[in-house]
Automatic annotation (TrEMBL):
The gene is yjjX. This is inosine/xanthosine triphosphatase. InterPro entries: ITPase-like_fam (IPR029001), NTPase/PRRC1 (IPR026533), YjjX_NTPase (IPR050299). It catalyses: XTP + H2O = XDP + phosphate + H(+); ITP + H2O = IDP + phosphate + H(+). It comes from Viridibacillus arvi. Pfam families: NTPase_I-T (PF01931). It comes from the Bacteria. GO terms for molecular function: ITPase activity; metal ion binding; nucleotide binding. The lineage of its organism: Bacteria, Bacillati, Bacillota, Bacilli, Bacillales.
Amino acid sequence: MKMLIAIGTKNKAKTGAVEAVVKQFVNEELVFEHVEVASGVSAQPMTDAETREGAINRAKNTRNVSNADFSFGLEGGVKEIDGVMYVCNWGALVLKDGQVITAAGAQIPLPETVAEDVKSGRELGPVMDEYTQQNDIRQHSGAIGIFTHDLIDRKEMFEHVIKLLIGQYFFQKA
Ligand SMILES: O=P(O)(O)OP(=O)(O)OP(=O)(O)OC[C@H]1O[C@@H](n2cnc3c(O)ncnc32)[C@H](O)[C@@H]1O
Ligand SMILES: [Mg+2]
């Protein structure tokens, strides 16, 4: 039986992360589907709670349009602690029966200038493109890659989140 894996985005850093980790750990014949779904939160989530909710909504909406065995939702956002803005990232895996599994990824602080632009209402994606004078950073290094000298890029950060999700699924099944 083929296993259908659906992902609620067309962002290459996210789809690449899901495909790499699922192929590594799920020993079945796999079919991948990318669907654009609503996150149900703002384009730039500003708290952990909002970012987590976006990931869950994306995964549920993906499940509803795909009826997949695994439906993934991944959401990037920012949060503030003690006046310092951090990037935060959340993932959700919704199973065919509707069960929701969640996990969060690595967080690093953003430089003051970038944080100020985001606080003024801009999305981190375009702010990062301006900061780096590159296009579409959000699908490649991501902010996390730029500010870690690419030791951890956005795909690798999301790979960790996908491992945390699938790992919890395996734990429950065992
Ligand atoms: O197509 P989708 O799946 O929406 O992918 P996205 O890159 O827009 O990612 P999110 O919606 O999850 O992220 C919310 C916002 O934060 C930006 N963002 C989040 N993490 C980022 C990162 O590491 N580097 C650059 N932009 C980032 C992103 O571009 C959006 O403006
Ligand atoms: Mg987005």
